[in-house]
Protein: Threonine ammonia-lyase
Amino acid sequence: MTLTLKDIEEAAARISSATINTRFEQSQTLSAIAGNQLYLKFENFQFTASFKERGALNKLLILQQQGEVKGVIAMSAGNHAKAVAYHAQRLGIPATIVMPRNTPNVKIQDTKDFGASVVLHGDTLDEAATHAHQISESKDLVFVHPYNDNEIMAGQGTVALEMLEVEPELDCIVVPVGGGGLIAGVATAAKTINPQIKIIGVEVEAYPSVHNALNGIAHSKGGSTIAEGIAVKQPGDKTLEVIRRLVDDVLVVSEESIEDAINLLLSIEKTVTEGAGAATLAAVLQNQDKFRDLKVALILSGANIDSRILASLLMRRLVNKGRIVRFLVQIDDSPGSLSDVAQAIGEFGGNILDVSHQRMFASVPIKKADLYLTVETRDAEQNQEILARLRELGYEAELIMQ
Structure:
């Protein structure tokens, strides 16, 4: 059965009381950076911090309407898991979630907190899905697919209705693509309302499955990615059929561009996004000419990023920008030398984050020590001022940027 605008409108009415019509507004600063009118749909503000609630709730409500449900089972890298677990708990439906073993801890714990039984199995979504189907058959549980299901797609498509209600003159909607449920729903709603609107998908370079399918490319990379929410090796047959008909293009973005986008959204919009959630901004910034002067909507699909990864990412961005650097200073291995160096760095406003000595190797004279100092600074000019001061004081010093 073909997904229709009516299906999506009915889903919107069905789920409206238990999901959030999230903020949708222009970002003045990001618009200036990107060279267009950039509007952000903050799906990271949903209760479980992703758009997945829309499809999951629509599916569960329909199952309830159809009769008694013994229980449901889903496979997910996290966001679909949380959404199914949360709304199943609300509706009194027992839920089991199968997750790959490499799923971020925050998503595993959040899913458990919503009362679901969590099973960790396999290293990929495909392996988790196979195991989930086995459990579904053995325990007579209804399998709730994360994307290859019309009722899931209909729920996800309600995002487009909300955006077009606020900004009916949008030129383009940019959508993260994993299995394709969100973009299939968005494309169906948006293209029916306005056939001229452009729908652009975004995949991460390690998992360009839809891009490859559309362009007849057989090769697929796989591997680790910060955008695990869209790390899908094979889209659904139902979603791919919609994508082939209605999606104008699928762009592939780098890991580094996604890291930059996460950092920008946090520093400019003060909003946390996971890798998949920031992929849309990464695509626009990586392909600025394609979106020049257009009115563009970005779906920030989720915020469920592991805090450890987020902290590491932010520190890496400071290193890449030269805001955190290392100085290598050779000092006399005697009392007071370290404090003299520290004082010199402090005089110029440097904030010392870490210090280590190295005096055990033959490259260092017996009465000397190599001193490595990790320092937070304002900019490249301040780095050079500190380096010049250290050399002025007679120290052999060098700046290590990476």
